[in-house]
Amino acid sequence: MDDLTDFLQKTMYLGVGLAAYAFEKIEHLDESLAELHRQTQRTVEELIDKGEQVVAQNNQTNSASTNWQVRPLHRRLLELVNGNEELANRLVERTRMSNPDQTLIWVYEKVIYDLERDRT
To answer: Model pTM greater than 0.70?
Structure first.
């Protein structure tokens, strides 16, 4: 997701930079400025639409891939807490809140690691 965020941020910067550069270069051409503004606005809107599509596709892909990766981790966590679903969910949520930038897979692995470490 970091790569996608970085890509979208760079795309946004490209669009803004392009608009700023274009405005600086043709400030003295009043009649062209209005047309350039419309074209730039269209380009920015197209980039935003494309970015939204990419994010939506990535979220769908991540959801599907995360589910099959989390399922065995969830089962392992349930084993460690003797099938206590409520406790497992609470541990995952607390770890997720403490580490909001981490993926769900990382959160599960951390909870499992901590439980196994504390048992030894």
So the answer is: no
